[in-house]
Amino acid sequence: MQRAMRLLEAVAEREHGAPAKQLARDAGLALPTAYHLLRTLVHEGYLRRQKGLFFLGEAAERLSSSGAQQKRRSTVDEALAHWRDTIGAPVYFAIYRDGEIEVKCVADSPSAPAVEEWADFRETGHAHAIGQCLLSQLGDEARRDHLERYPVQSITPYTVRDNETLLRRLDRIGRMEPVVERQEYALGTVCAAIPITAGTTAATLALSLPVHQADRLLPAAHQLQTEIGMLLGTLAISISI
């Protein structure tokens, strides 16, 4: 296994491919051993051979892509955890893709627990700050399409009452303005969500607090907003996670 990995590393360092003899030298292997391993790696799809030269194959490229994706995910998780600890509130990262709300990452702790998803987040976007922030970034047609599939329904006594009232509210939200909701999704909880520009995909970072800390909500949201820039590229790329 280690010898095969050395060969893969040797091939990866040769952008324009390399013959077996060169790879054997690079990997510090006897030529017969290198030939045997190279044939096996080609058979398994980790390498491909073209005109006597070896290149990385599709299986190796998938591993590389998966590793890069995991690294991006780890970077996002670490950033959310840092903000959770710095701000003292659970932090959420969500996107709107293919007509659905997707919460991609959540960083919480026993002292800063996340909101319990007691009603499906995808179906209740009208009631929580994450959903409202994502919907505010869509065009009117896309908003109405979403509400046809997931119409407004009463979640708490504070939930917006109908589709048109929600649409009017969304129209009033400023382009980079935090979206705030107070006990519309869960009694005893207030939330704020910040829009993120990530290509053509609507995305958001959000946080939640118990209602008795409601005075902290907007300062915490603005604090989060000032720190987003350093991770914006990673957040944009991680939409593919």
Automatic annotation (TrEMBL):
<dbReference type="InterPro" id="IPR050707">
    <property type="entry name" value="HTH_MetabolicPath_Reg"/>
</dbReference>
<dbReference type="InterPro" id="IPR029016">
    <property type="entry name" value="GAF-like_dom_sf"/>
</dbReference>
<protein>
    <submittedName>
        <fullName>IclR family transcriptional regulator C-terminal domain-containing protein</fullName>
    </submittedName>
</protein>
<dbReference type="InterPro" id="IPR014757">
    <property type="entry name" value="Tscrpt_reg_IclR_C"/>
</dbReference>
<dbReference type="InterPro" id="IPR005471">
    <property type="entry name" value="Tscrpt_reg_IclR_N"/>
</dbReference>
<dbReference type="InterPro" id="IPR036390">
    <property type="entry name" value="WH_DNA-bd_sf"/>
</dbReference>
<keyword id="KW-0804">Transcription</keyword>
<dbReference type="Pfam" id="PF01614">
    <property type="entry name" value="IclR_C"/>
</dbReference>
<keyword id="KW-0238">DNA-binding</keyword>
<keyword id="KW-0805">Transcription regulation</keyword>
<dbReference type="InterPro" id="IPR036388">
    <property type="entry name" value="WH-like_DNA-bd_sf"/>
</dbReference>
<feature type="domain" description="IclR-ED">
    <location>
        <begin position="59"/>
        <end position="241"/>
    </location>
</feature>
<dbReference type="Pfam" id="PF09339">
    <property type="entry name" value="HTH_IclR"/>
</dbReference>
<feature type="domain" description="HTH iclR-type">
    <location>
        <begin position="1"/>
        <end position="58"/>
    </location>
</feature>
